[in-house]
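Subject: for your reference before the review

Hello V.,

The reviewers asked for a structural picture of the protein, and I figured it would be easier to keep everything in one thread rather than splitting it across files. Below is the amino acid sequence we used in the manuscript, unchanged from the supplementary table.
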Amino acid sequence: MKTNYKIWALVFTLVFCYTIQAQNPEWLLYSAGGPVYSVDKEMDTVWASTNGGIMKINQTVGMGIIGVKSLGLPGNCVLYRIAIDSLGNKWIGTSGNGLLKYDGLSWTIYNISNSGLPNNNISWISIDKLGNKWIGTQGGGLAKFDGQAWKVFNASNSGLPDNNINCLSIDETGNKWIGTKDSGLVKYDDLSWKVYNASNSGFAHNGIECITIDKSGNKWIGIVEGGIAKYDDKNWTFYNPANSGLPSYEITCIAIDQQDNKWIGSAERGLTKFNNQTWVVYNITNSGLPDNFINCVFVDNLSIKWIGTVAGVSEYREGGILGVKEDDDRNTGTKPAGYALLQNYPNPFNPSTTIEYQIPNGGNVTLKVYDMLGREVTTLVNEYKPAGKYTAAFNGANLSSGVYLYKLSAGSYTTIRKMLLVK
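And here is what came back from the structure prediction:
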């Protein structure tokens, strides 16, 4: 029998940070101090899985985190995957602690001791049109859960060649496309299994990291150390740094927007946009991304990109974030809604740049610049400031080229951003 916790979840409201690239408010950063592994959206609220809880992001209300320590789970429990069903239930896969269901009021825990779940390490959750949950595990194969009964597929009782499932995507006709850790890609049509691997499909490796399906039914597959494969059910096309603008062989995630652009996350090489002709790479030096290691990309119904990184989740809206204005609040008399340290502009710069920040309450403010070794370069601001928006100029004429950090401290709020000096 599953474990059900009828408790009210504690929501700790956290200060959230805005990151804006140059003078165009396209990027926002939401951070709870750790990595974000997965993102989904329900109406106007974004949910993201992280260590020890799920982030709840609403651009009007702000950001909070719902912790799971009160469930008896470790405070640093990794919530690796999140998916939201048609009723608004959040299904959350953990690393070692089973499957969680959160209905907005109470939690339900499914694990190997109280359910048909074959393994407590959950690597993927997909929900089909009938509401069935397809749960990939590391070591236990694939489980199907219809809300009442469990059915397990593994290497012993099915055509699944590997019990380690990395990813799963469901096409329009209901076929399940399953990426395995070491045994290639598997298609399951509810009757039969077909395996695609290095010996019959040209994969560089048999490890499949991610898969997504576009409107035309093409499968876009991230191969471990092999770049991307596109499969149209007849032909294979491969993209990697040697033959395209893809910056990395290590692809972690792929999402597709309403214009058929592919948004590709990589390990240590940032985010790439591919419009089927040209490639554009976003990283910490030319965008509002806080880190180049991308865990996930989610495109919502407004074509906003939510990028989970090892340092939080970035919201990227091409053309500008709604509700973020360039007007100076000191001139309008409007009090800023929260603390924010914006990306310097221009960036990269030589030798001067401008740093903008805002504070919702008066208090002592410090703004300092450091080198990458943590040595203080200069103090730009160290004084009392009333609530408002401010700018500070930084000149690196006497410094060598490289990445520098700038840190804002105001009250209990502290955040750090990077900037690049190029001479």
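For the response letter, the relevant points are probably these. The first strand starts at residue 3 and ends at 5. The first helix runs from residue 198 to 201.

Happy to draft the paragraph if you're swamped.

O.
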